[in-house]
Structure formats: structure tokens, C-alpha cells
Write a sequence for this structure.
């Protein structure tokens, strides 16, 4: 979805976008949800060096949808620190429109089911990933709805994933910047169908399970051992929760992080950056699957961005969950641990590794869910 600022400061669409409903977005069905674990690899597979000419260029460029985050948020943002590092907000959308309707009825709504702040260190040889649980209670800032143009008042103790629901990508970015004090350099969003098609185009992802997984909600049934998962199975794995660990969303985040590492390794093993045919096919799928900020909304910009990630390996990526505790007033929600969370954001601001002390008292990154997938 491409946007431009028109007269009066109103955002107006210039490309595809979610169908306006004229009302506050409804709560979506919770039967199935999307993950955006694929987005890290998506950034890599859109590197079209060697094939980004002629037909290839116009086809891939025509696939892209972009949102002008800078125009939507204006100048009231954290400082843009130009030190060689980059911060990217990566979201998974649970929209049920179009091909995603197989996961539930289209209610004209979407939420950010999975959210990660990805910090790429100066030199692009290492990175940190901070997963934000969707049910984290936060102070959501005032936003402008991307569907109606109306001002959405801020809210205390709002669930994190409602920021995308009420205001779209720009509101999600504004909320993360308010929480962290860090300006997001880029935004990447993926949905159900794009995730599955990317995995299938890669030829599946190989993972090893240390115990049986039988989750009737995600329809995943795996025996212990090594498996090559197709797109549908991969989506089921990163959605699975009740049959692994303590059944919480915090445990599911651990599974998603392990899958993300396997996905990165798989992308490298199939020669994403060396085989022109593989490169183009993956780039074609990936550029259809993602929505980016306008600064990444062209083949040239995505190529430059992706080429900067080629030196990264999964072992050089630190992954944590935002330090949280279960909300004393509602055990189905979590709230950030103020001081440990600030340790995390401070480390990213200063381009440093996140200290182990930041997660010691967190309810996240605990339990054995992460050990189930290797």
C-alpha cells in the first residue's frame, strides 16, 4: 500500500490498501494467526543483483507495496542516528482478506500478531532481535487511522497489537518508537499467504523436533526427529502453542526464534545470492508478500538493504523477548519490566549486545519451548 500526504496533511492512498471500513477495526478471529519470522530472510531474497534489469526489474518493482511512514509521522520522532546501524520494525499481519480468507472470515480488520525490533549493528556483521509479545500492555500514543484519517486517542494499558489495528503501520511504528526511544529506520510486514509461498519457494525448511508436537488448533502433527516443513506446516509450527512448553505465547515466541534461525540457514543453503534463477523466483515471491516503508519501496533500495545483510549468519544474531512479567490484574496479559526493558533499548541505542541481566527476571525466554525445535 503506497501513500502520499495530500492537502491538509491527510494521508491519501496511491496503490493497493486494505479496504476502508469507516469504523474502528473489529477484533479478529483468533483461530489462526500469522507470523513474520520469514521477514528477515525476505529482506535477503529480494537482492536482485544480476537479474534486476528489464522485465525482471519492472515485474519486481510492480510487485511492491509501500507505506510512507515518514510523511505519516512527521518530525516528532526520535533522532535519526546515522552511525551505520539500522533498526527495523518487522510485523506479521493477520488480515483475512483475499487468499488469507481460508484462515477465517474477512472482518475488514487486521492486527500485528507478531512483532520484532531488528537491530543491525554497525558493520552489519551481527544483529539483535527483540520480540514484543502481542498482548503486552503499553501506553499507546495518539495516532491517525490509515483507513479513515481520523485521530485515534492514546490509551493506557492498551494491548500492543491494537496499535496496528486502530492506526495501521504508522501507528505501530509510532508505538514502538514511543516505547523504545529509538527511531525505526525501516518497516517490513508479511501476511499468511506470503509466508507460506516463500517457504515453498525455498523448497521447505529443515528442522529437528526433540519431542512430538500434536496441536489440534494449528493442525500440526510431528514425531520427534528431522523434518522438511512446507509452507503450511511452517505456518502451523510458528503458530503452535498449546502442545509445547507451558502453552503460553511467550513459549511460542521461543519456537518462532528457533525457526527463524533455521529459515536463515535454509536461504543460504539454496544459493539465494548465487543462483540467478533461484534468486529471481524467490524475489518474485518475496516482493509480492511484503509491505515496506517507502524508503525500501523499490528494487534498488531493497537490493542495497539486502546486500548489506549477506554477511550475517544465524549464530551472529542475539534473540530475546522484551523483558515482561504477567500482569497482576490479568494473567492473560503481560507488562514490560521497566528497568530491564530500558536496558534492552539502551543497548540497541549504543549498538551494544543486550546484557544477560536484562532478561534475568523476565517471564520471557524461560521454560523449554525453545529446545523443542532445533
Amino acid at each position: 500500500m503506497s501513500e502520499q500526504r495530500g492537502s491538509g496533511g491527510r494521508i491519501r492512498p496511491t496503490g493497493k490498501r486494505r479496504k476502508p471500513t469507516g469504523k474502528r477495526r473489529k477484533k479478529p478471529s483468533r483461530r489462526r494467526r500469522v507470523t513474520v519470522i520469514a521477514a528477515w530472510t525476505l529482506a535477503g531474497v529480494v537482492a536482485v543483483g544480476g537479474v534486476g534489469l528489464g522485465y525482471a526489474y519492472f515485474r519486481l518493482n510492480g510487485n511492491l507495496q509501500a507505506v510512507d511512514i515518514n510523511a505519516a509521522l512527521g518530525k516528532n520522532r526520535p533522532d535519526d542516528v546515522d552511525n551505520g546501524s539500522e533498526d527495523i520494525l518487522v510485523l506479521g499481519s493477520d488480515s483475512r482478506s483475499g487468499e488469507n480468507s481460508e484462515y477465517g472470515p474477512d472482518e475488514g480488520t487486521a492486527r500485528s500478531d507478531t512483532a520484532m525490533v531488528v537491530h543491525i549493528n554497525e558493520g552489519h556483521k551481527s544483529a539483535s532481535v527483540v520480540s514484543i509479545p502481542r498482548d503486552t500492555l503499553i501506553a499507546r500514543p495518539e495516532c491517525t487511522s490509515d483507513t479513515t484519517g481520523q485521530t485515534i486517542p492514546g490509551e493506557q494499558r492498551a494491548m500492543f497489537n491494537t496499535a496496528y489495528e486502530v492506526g495501521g503501520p504508522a501507528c505501530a511504528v509510532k508505538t514502538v518508537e514511543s516505547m523504545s526511544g529509538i527511531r525505526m529506520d525501516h518497516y517490513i510486514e508479511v501476511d499468511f499467504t506470503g509466508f507460506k509461498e516463500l517457504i515453498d519457494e525455498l523448497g521447505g525448511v529443515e528442522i529437528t523436533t526433540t519431542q512430538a508436537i500434536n496441536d489440534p488448533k494449528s493442525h500440526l502433527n510431528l514425531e520427534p526427529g528431522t523434518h522438511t516443513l512446507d509452507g503450511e506446516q511452517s505456518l502451523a509450527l510458528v503458530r503452535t502453542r498449546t502442545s509445547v512448553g507451558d502453552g503460553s505465547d511467550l513459549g511460542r515466541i521461543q519456537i518462532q526464534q528457533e525457526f527463524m534461525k533455521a529459515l536463515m540457514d535454509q536461504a543460504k543453503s539454496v544459493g539465494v545470492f548465487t543462483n540467478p534463477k533461484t534468486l529471481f523466483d524467490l524475489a518474485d515471491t518475496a516482493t509480492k508478500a511484503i509491505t515496506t516503508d517507502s524508503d525500501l519501496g523499490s528494487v534498488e533500495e531493497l537490493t542495497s538493504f539486502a546486500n548489506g545483510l549477506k554477511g550475517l549468519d544465524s549464530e551472529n544474531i542475539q534473540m530475546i523477548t522484551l523483558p515482561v512479567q504477567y500482569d497482576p490484574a490479568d494473567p492473560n496479559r503481560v507488562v514490560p519490566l521497566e528497568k530491564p526493558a530500558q536496558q534492552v533499548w539502551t543497548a540497541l541505542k549504543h549498538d551494544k549486545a543486550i546484557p544477560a541481566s536484562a532478561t534475568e527476571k523476565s517471564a520471557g525466554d524461560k521454560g523449554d519451548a525453545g529446545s523443542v525445535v532445533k
Notes: The mean pLDDT is 79.
